[in-house]
Amino acid sequence: MRTSNVQRFLSPQNCRVLGVKNNLTKQDIERFFSKVKIVANGCWEWSGGRDKDGYGKMRIGKRMFLSHRLSYKFHFGEVPEGKEIMHRCDNPPCCNPSHLCAGSHKENCQDRTAKGRDLLFSGSKNGKSKLTASQVLRIRELPFSPEVIAKMFSISVTQVKRLRNFQQWRHLGMQQGLFAENRAA
């Protein structure tokens, strides 16, 4: 990034916007922009540390900030109360302000669902999953009561009911063209 961008963010007003008062130094700003790499698709990818979900993170003083939230604050000011910073580009390490917008948690979840990102860790891809796709399909086909099936697979009766009603592993029903309302009882 150019030095002019660094100078632009050094005002005391921007320091207050960040909530770190006068602790924001020229070195902090330079360090932030030194970790931003512009890639071919226009994203400003964070090359520094990242959290488990791939979002960039940077320590300023004793506090840790997410890079996309810092970028939003640098360019637009404080994040509105009750809002999250959403990525239009669906790239967690991106901190390009033109790829960021504020939205409610509900809007963020709706955006994630509309773009199919909520299926990334569904089913057996979820590290907490106790079942495989073939077991789920088998559970849905078995003619036994939920209590019997729960014992067979060492799961709860509630989980059996949720599987059969497509409340869990719904993506598997989408792949198979099955939905609870279309199943034969």
Our estimate of the beta-strand percent is 5-15%
Query: Biggest sheet: strands, sense, closure?
Result: 2 strands, antiparallel
**Gyration radius, in Å:** 23 Å
- Compressed to H and E, one letter per element, the order equals HHHEEEEHEEHHHHH
Question: Structural class per helix/strand content?
Answer: alpha+beta
CATH topology of the largest domain: Homing Intron 3 (I-Ppo) Encoded Endonuclease, Chain A
**Mean of residue pLDDT?**
79
CATH hierarchy class name of the largest domain: Alpha Beta
How many β strands by DSSP?
6
Number of domains: 2
* Strands side by side in the biggest sheet: 1-2
Question: Low-confidence segments, ≥5 residues, pLDDT <50?
Answer: 180-185
What is the CA-CA span between the terminal residues? 62 Å
Separate helix tally: 9
What is the molecular shape?
elongated
How much helix is in the residues?
A: 25-40%
Describe the protein in words:
- The protein has 185 residues and is of the alpha+beta class.
- It has two domains: 3-118, Homing Intron 3 (I-Ppo) Encoded Endonuclease, Chain A (Alpha-Beta Complex), CATH 3.90.75; 123-182.
- It contains nine helices and six strands.
- The strands form three sheets. It has a two-stranded antiparallel ribbon with strand order 1-2.
- Strand 1 and strand 2 form a beta hairpin.
- Helix 7 (146-153) packs across helix 8.
- The radius of gyration is 23 Å and the shape is elongated.
- Mean pLDDT is 79; it is low at 180-185.
Summarize the SSE layout with pairings.
Layout: H1 3-8, H2 12-17, H3 26-34, E1 36-38, E2 44-46, E3 57-60, E4 63-66, H4 67-76, E5 84-87, E6 100-103, H5 105-114, H6 133-141, H7 146-153, H8 157-164, H9 170-176
Antiparallel strand pairs: 1-2, 3-4, 5-6
